[in-house]
Structures are given as structure tokens and as C-alpha cells.
Amino acid sequence: MQQLGITPSVAVNALYSRIVATGGLPFPLQLTKDEQVAERLHAATERAIAESRIESSSLKTPEEIKSWLEEE
């Protein structure tokens, strides 16, 4: 904010003004590629738990998840 020479309050007010003027956010809201991958992994893990293919307590670390995925 300092580089722009504005306060957080001015930035928020400017954002609100753009929302009102455009009828929406002035930028797209989307997940990054990493967030998309993490979400898909989470959903797949939840499905596997629901289908009783794995115990929820058996996957605690990324390494354990990777190992389980490689077994499939």
C-alpha cells in the first residue's frame, strides 16, 4: 500500500466503488493450479474414506497420501 501511496481504508473504499460501478468484482476469483490439484486430491481422499477403501486415520502426511495413491 505504501508503494501506491494509499491507506488500506482508501484501497477498500476504491474496491467497493469498483464493485458498485461494474456490478461485480473487478478481478476474477479462481483457484491456482496448486489449489485445484489439492482440492481434487482432497475430494478423492474423501470419496475413498466414504467408500471404506481406506481409514481416515491412515493418511496423515503428503508422503502417506502419495504412497496410497501409488498403490492404486
What can you see in these coordinates?
The chain is mostly helical and 72 residues long. The protein has helices at 8-22, 33-50, 62-71. The mean pLDDT is 85.
Q: What order do the SSEs take from the amino end to the carboxyl end, as H and E?
A: HHH
Largest sheet: none
Low-confidence regions:
none
The helical percent reads: 55-70%
Which shape, going by the Cα principal axes?
Answer: elongated
Give the DSSP E fraction (strand runs of 2 or more residues). Answer: under 5%
Task: Please tag this protein with its features.
single chain; 72 residues; mainly alpha; 3 helices; 0% strand; elongated
Please give the structural blueprint.
Blueprint: H1 8-22, H2 33-50, H3 62-71
Q: What would a concise description of this structure say?
A:
With 72 residues, this protein is mainly alpha-helical.
